[in-house]
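Cross-check.
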Amino acid sequence: MFPHHREREQPIFSTRAHVFQIDPATKRNWIPASKHAVSVSFFFDSNRNVYRIISVGGTKAIINCIVTPSMTFTKTSQKFGQWADSRANTVYGLGFATEQQLHQFSEKFKEVKDAARLAREKSQDKELANTALSIAAPQDLSDGLQSPPVMCVNGPEDKLFRSQSADITLSSEKERIKKMLSEGSICEMNLEAELFTLQDSNSKLVAALHEANANVAQWKKQLVAYQEETERLREQVADLEAHGSHGPSDLLKDELTQSLEELEALLKAKDEEIHILQSKKSDYHELERDRDQAIHRLREVEMRNSELERRIQNTEQNLSNSLEDRDRLDTELQRAIEILDIKIFDLNDLRQSLVKLMDK
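Predicted model, tokenized:
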């Protein structure tokens, strides 16, 4: 059943995005359905004329949505879009890496929705035709069983009554077929979710089997090496038994004793290192405290330094202003001296003129 179902379903578009689902409790917050970006694909079932959006994350299908004409994909930002699935009673959200990917998915969603609308209209027309044929056949048979006089007496009114009853039966049959199709779609969605889970598990098992087959040769080589090492050790034991003054057990005992002594010495050295580290732990805390204090003092010094720099800048500015004022005063004083010299020269000329005048 499953292989045949997969053969009739063909992918038509695929992209990668982060998948989210609306929080069922708050209906406001988004819950991530995948840790990383996963493949989100549109599939088309040619036998049923059904379009679906499918996304598999890990071992389960996180999106298994049949596209209906009533669905609408809404762009909520430059890289995020969402749509509601009334069958699953949830809202899906997709986060894309680029704005172009969001635009491509939105355009494909519109195309698939229009195609699903056309497919549903064709399917409804076909169902209506089939239902009308199935209803008309028993009516024809019943008409044949009726007596000719009744047909002759009723005439056109009897045909009108049969047409109205056929329309009523047709509408009820249509509702029953829709209900059966909706129930079958829900069961099929559950089966398809199980199918994706089984396929993902099967792919993982196949990958593990390939890895195991690839490691068989390496395991065989290791087994041969272990066998050779075992034979070599057996030969050494035989040589020791034939030529050694001590038995193999005594030699092994001596080796174990020596190894034990070495381990005890190593353990003692490690204990000494632990004691040294524990003794240095208090020193380390003191160093950390001193470091914190030094950092605090350094910050205070930096603050004072910045304050002194600000004061130096103000002093330099004041000094520059004072130098400018002094230069300006020197210039004005020089000008006043020059004017005073001119006045003194004029007064001297006037005095000499008065002296000459008095001499006359």
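The chain is about 70% helix and 15% strand. Strands lie at 9-22, 30-32, 38-45, 50-57, 60-66, 74-75, 80-85, 90-95. Passed to J.P. for a second look.
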